[in-house]
Amino acid sequence: MKKELFNSSFLTLLLLCFINIKAHADSYITCSSCSSVTSMQSKARSYIFDRTNGDSMSSAYTVHLVSIPHGIAGSFHVTSRPQLDRFGELETIVIARRSSTPQSLIDKAKRAQSYMHLAKKTRVPSSSGYTSAWELAQNSSSRDRLDDWAEQNDSLTYWSTQIISIFGGLFYDPLAGIELLFEFDDGSQLVMKAATLRSGTKLRLTYTRHSAIDSEGNRIPDAGSSIHGTYQFSSQYKLEQYIQKAAEYGIRLRVIQTGVRGRVIITPIDRT
Question: Within 10 A of 32 (CB to CB), how many other CB atoms are there?
């Protein structure tokens, strides 16, 4: 009898959890990697799942997303509810359905994308103190100093200010996650990612691991990583230049010719 009463009370409580749906204010998030409405839908679902996983009460959200690099926006009605799995344990079920996206948000996303050409590729002159992506890939402290230099770059400052102005206070940080390409005097490149704003319109960047390449497109290793694999060079000079750069950071290499012009296999000997 007591067991039946307990089960009845538990089921009643569980039913109340399912019936009572708690509504929330609209959420506005950025998804710079989202290239379609479908990927935005998945992002909205995972965003709410992370917020509600383990909750005992059902809830409903309206989530708005923008992808500035792709110039798209999407809105979704997302519900989260607890239910019993086949083992009698509570699990969280989250469903995201497309809803009408405000035209103003679509317009803002397209307008923000129109400014992306200002930050598509930023040239880093030798006057900045850097001449190659090797310096930043191999030295983490140099990345912070490049971040400081980028903060003073007129083009990037104008770009970030315009983006923030377009969205106003609608999004906590519309720039977060946007990847920016930097090119150095020797033709090498690397990618920095916009991080959460720390104050006002101050753009802060973090280095994207394993993104550095030389002018030939060959990977430049991060600190602590080895050089191993097939590489392509347009001339013997370019190959020797790569080997010399590696040697500057204590990386000794063995080069094996493949028989195909310009293509070699590089393996590490040791690191001094």
Answer: 18
Are 215 and 120 contained in the same domain?
yes
Report how far apart, in Å, the C-alpha atoms of 16 and of each of 74, 79, 264 are. 32, 16, 67
Q: What is the pTM of this model?
A: 0.78
**H helix runs in 59-132, sequence order:** 103-113
How far apart CA 256 and CA 243 sit, in angstroms, is 13
Residues 120 and 213 in one domain: yes
Same domain flag for 143 and 237:
no
pLDDT digits (tens, 9 = 90+) for 117-152: 888 899 999 999 999 999 999 998 888 888 889 888
218 and 119 in a common domain: yes
* pLDDT over 80 (residue 202): no
